[in-house]
Write a structure and sequence with these properties.
Number of helices: 15
Strand content: 5-15%
Distance between the termini: 41 Å
Largest sheet: 6 strands, parallel
Order of helices and strands: EHEHHEHEHEEEEHHHHHHHHHH
Length: 392
């Protein structure tokens, strides 16, 4: 295990009806004029009305910003920054999933900055940001406990990430009941995203990481069990509670410390959602099995076999571990299919003849990525080709 620093100041407020406490939470932090960042669905569901009632009860002023959409864009962020400055906002509250949270985080950095907020999505570190709180309505991105945000630049279609402890939410209110309004597809996309955050930490070349390996394996096993339970009973509160907390644990990096991580698959998918506006979880469902099938032929077969053995329960074939490894990859695909997730480009509506343009959008040039297995442009093309043909 490598040396590490870990800092996670977010206060988690978990359970039924906890969103009713949001006014008190903001008041304790000194907020007096709040920008509420949300999607139109949160308004239609009545959640925003309940949130605003809680703020009124604490004599907190607020401004609505209800324009959030999937795969948030720079346009939304610029509008939010201007609104904050116009209304003298001193606190930002995101109500929704990763799109609302990431939009709020980007706005929080931009309000305190005299330049273009996109600088922070191009490698610059912020030095100040407005405080943020969140009310999670979907179990997926883990943004409620992470220092990360992802925004698409509408001019370039670059989908970039920013990272800073300044944008970790001060609090995260998590009521699993709020996720019961999601349709099965949204729920499944969320579960897939959570699973991917585990895999990106799990496939590591770092030695002596048995503890976090076991923790990640347990979390993935739980996702399989609870994900399949929700197919049968979408109103299973216990399963939704487990999945909601899993989303946080998978991405607040408590399971990623001390180990190298592999984010290549996430980057390969970001190109898809930036260009085609597909749901991130759906794109991940297509790209991760393709990445697995490419890499297992070249590197780390014992790690893949360990995944198959410990997560899906296949007996280890020590004479031919690749057999076990491939069974695990197939079982993972079968799980995604059971969730009714796409597993190839055709199901996402992407044509195979567009693969060369997707490779170019990765902006790799003549270099290589870093990760469990380093990729060059030829490797990336091959993975996209696998994604195009998988199980057809």
């Amino acid at each position: 295990m490598k040396s590490f620093n870990y800092y996670s100041p977010t206060k988690f407020i978990f359970g039924k009806k906890r969103e009713e406490e949001v006014g008190k939470c903001i008041k304790e932090l000194g907020g007096g004029n709040v920008l509420i960042v949300f999607s139109p669905f949160a308004k239609r569901s009545g959640l925003i009305d309940r949130v605003e009632k809680s703020l009124v009860n604490e004599s907190i002023d607020f401004v609505e910003f209800g324009k959030v959409k999937e795969n948030p864009t720079s346009t939304m962020v610029y509008e939010g920054i201007d609104l904050c400055k116009e209304k003298n906002v001193d606190f930002i509250l995101a109500v929704g999933g990763g799109s609302a949270m990431d939009t709020a985080k980007a706005i929080a950095m931009g309000v305190k900055y005299h330049g273009d907020f996109w600088d922070f999505f191009s490698g610059k570190n912020p030095t100040d940001a407005l405080p943020i709180g969140v009310i999670a309505t979907i179990s997926a991105s883990g943004s409620e406990g992470s220092p990360n945000a992802i925004i698409t630049n509408v001019k370039t279609l670059d989908k970039n990430a920013a990272e800073s402890d300044l944008i970790r939410p001060k609090f995260a209110i998590m009521n699993p009941e709020l996720t019961m309004t999601l349709n099965p597809y949204q729920t499944a996309c969320g579960i897939t995203d959570i699973f991917s955050h585990c895999l990106e930490r799990y496939f590591s070349n770092t030695e002596d990481i048995k503890l976090t390996d076991r923790m990640l394996e347990g979390l993935m096993k739980s996702l399989v069990d609870d994900g399949l339970s929700l197919i049968e009973n979408p109103d299973d509160y216990g399963a939704r509670a487990n999945i909601m907390w899993a989303a946080t644990l998978a991405h607040n990096d408590i399971l990623g410390v001390g180990r190298d991580q592999d984010w290549n698959t996430h980057h390969l998918e970001h190109v898809l959602s930036a260009k085609y506006n597909c749901v991130h979880g759906a794109g991940i469902a297509v790209m991760f099995p393709a990445w697995m099938r490419f890499v297992v032929e070249r590197h780390g077969v014992m790690k893949f076999a360990q995944f198959a053995n410990r997560v899906f329960g296949f007996e280890m074939d020590f004479e031919n571990p690749k057999t076990t490894a491939l069974r695990g990859i197939t079982a993972f695909e079968d799980f995604l299919i059971a969730l009714k997730m796409p597993i190839n480009f055709k199901e996402l509506g992407i044509r195979a003849d567009e693969i060369d343009s997707l490779v170019e959008m990765n902006h790799l040039g003549n270099g290589k990525t870093a990760g469990f297995y380093n990729l060059d442009n030829n490797d990336i093309k091959e993975i996209y080709l696998i994604a195009a043909k998988n199980r057809l």
